[in-house]
Structure formats: C-alpha cells, structure tokens
Amino acid sequence: MAHYRAGDSRREQFRRYLEKGGVLDTLTKVLVALYEEPEKPNNAMDFLKQHLGTSGPETADVETLRLEVIELRQKYELLLEENKDLKAKLAQFEPPKEEGQPE
C-alpha cells in the first residue's frame, strides 16, 4: 500500500507542475477546440501542432527572412567581385616576386 501512495504522490506533484506551468489549461483549450471543430481534420496531430504553436515560424517571418537571405547573398556576391577587382589592382602595383623569396 505504501508503494501505491508514493506513486500517487509523484503523479500529484507532476499534475501540479503541469497546472502551474499552464500546460493543462493550454491542452484543454486545444482539445476543446478540436472537439468543437464542425469538420474534424484528417490529421489530429497536425491540428494540435498548429494550435499549440509548434508548427514552425509564422509565414510572414519566413518570408521576411527569405528576402533578407536573398539580399545578403546579392551583397555577398558584389563584395566578392569588388574584392577580386581590388586584388587585381593591387597586384599591378606590387613588385614582381622573385623565386626563392618568401611571400
């Protein structure tokens, strides 16, 4: 009987932990929303993920980041080209290196 109470106590502690963190309320709200959904989704897990916010970043955020990546790649390519041109110009003004001399 003592073994049963120890397990029960751990469950109660865990339940309080979930309650304190708002997990129980959030899960209840999402499950109620699924229950009240007039047309049940084909995949209940996707519904839960979407409503719990674990489906990923917002579409607007993704689009903003995608545009930023494109812009940074273009800037990177321009800087590479500029670097190449500047190295070529610098090479024109450097004296020729003789064999055997360290760089």
TrEMBL record:
<protein>
    <recommendedName>
        <fullName>c-Myc-binding protein</fullName>
    </recommendedName>
</protein>
<feature type="coiled-coil region">
    <location>
        <begin position="62"/>
        <end position="89"/>
    </location>
</feature>
<comment type="similarity">
    <text>Belongs to the AMY1 family.</text>
</comment>
<keyword id="KW-0175">Coiled coil</keyword>
<dbReference type="GO" id="GO:0005634">
    <property type="term" value="C:nucleus"/>
</dbReference>
<dbReference type="InterPro" id="IPR026060">
    <property type="entry name" value="AMY1"/>
</dbReference>
<keyword id="KW-0539">Nucleus</keyword>
<dbReference type="GO" id="GO:0003713">
    <property type="term" value="F:transcription coactivator activity"/>
</dbReference>
